[in-house]
Amino acid sequence: SQELEQSPQSLIVQEGKNLTINCTSSKTLYGLYWYKQKYGEGLIFLMMLQKGGEEKSHEKITAKLDEKKQQSSLHITASQPSHAGIYLCGADPRPPSGGGADGLTFGKGTHLIIQP
Amino acid sequence: DAGVIQSPRHEVTEMGQEVTLRCKPISGHNSLFWYRQTMMRGLELLIYFNNNVPIDDSGMPEDRFSAKMPNASFSTLKIQPSEPRDSAVYFCASSSILAIGQFFGPGTRLTVL
């Protein structure tokens, strides 16, 4: 079965600083999703990457999928208190079949704290 | 759009009792997912449905767990009998072939004493 490892597990960053979170898969990635979760709440979809080399941005958050499609990185520029939370990466276990969605495998998450 | 609706938001029960969690997916979405989140194991897929049909229930931990989707706008996850190790946050999510990503509900925090 596919496993996703996120690093670091937790991160404390001073407000205004840049940071990067990594997600490494044990198998080929067919679709990589980034979510943010505030403590005690549900997951908020940030972006999805599918093609090797693909890069997407959402406000000050940029995510990349590497050429070999087994690793993704999430980069936050000029961090703000609103960026605090848990960032989770999720992956499609199979190529799209056209028959409907598949359940995702998730990493354990990266806890991000922003210090004022 | 109301988003994915889950009820109850919090449930405290005693070991051995039956627990039923409910989910209303986003209107028009044809896939529905049940996940469980714990500190130890993170977010795990339990079961998912496409067009109301269960596709993969390999994540359901034991026969004590069962899920149904009688129609496109409602699903239940039942635990009978409940055990303390079932304590977790249970999330429901839905998706559509016309949209990217799965949309999560606020979760049900279950505590089994």
Task: Give a description of the structure.
The complex is a heterodimer of chains A (116) and B (113). Helices cover 0% and strands 51% of the residues of chain A. Chain A has no helices and 11 strands. Chain A has strands at residues 4-7, 10-14, 19-25, 32-37, 43-49, 55-58, 61-65, 71-76, 85-91, 105-106, 110-115. In chain A, β6 (55-58) and β7 (61-65) form a beta hairpin. The radius of gyration of chain A is 14 Å and the shape is globular. The N and C termini of chain A lie far apart (40 Å). The mean pLDDT of chain A is 90. Chain B has 113 residues and is an all-beta fold. Helices cover 0% and strands 55% of the residues of chain B. Chain B has no helices and 11 strands. Chain B has strands at residues 5-7, 10-13, 19-24, 31-38, 42-50, 53-56, 65-71, 74-79, 88-95, 103-104, 108-112. In chain B, the strands form 2 sheets. In chain B, strands 2, 4, 5, 6, 9, 10 and 11 form a 7-stranded mixed beta sheet that branches. Chain B has a 4-stranded antiparallel beta sheet with strand order 1-3-8-7, with no helix packed on it. In chain B, β9 (88-95) and β10 form a beta hairpin. Chain B starts with a strand and ends with a strand. The mean pLDDT of chain B is 94. Chain A binds chain B through residues 33, 35, 41-45, 48, 88, 90, 99-109, and chain B through 4, 30-31, 33, 35, 42-45, 47-48, 50-51, 55-56, 59, 91, 93, 95, 97, 100-107.
SSE layout and pairing:
The complex is a heterodimer of chains A (116) and B (113).
Chain A (H helix, E strand, L loop, with lengths): L3 E4 L2 E5 L4 E7 L6 E6 L5 E7 L5 E4 L2 E5 L5 E6 L8 E7 L13 E2 L3 E6 L1
Chain B lengths: L4 E3 L2 E4 L5 E6 L6 E8 L3 E9 L2 E4 L8 E7 L2 E6 L8 E8 L7 E2 L3 E5 L1
Parallel strand pairs in B: 2-11
Antiparallel strand pairs in B: 1-3, 3-8, 4-5, 4-9, 5-6, 7-8, 9-10, 9-11
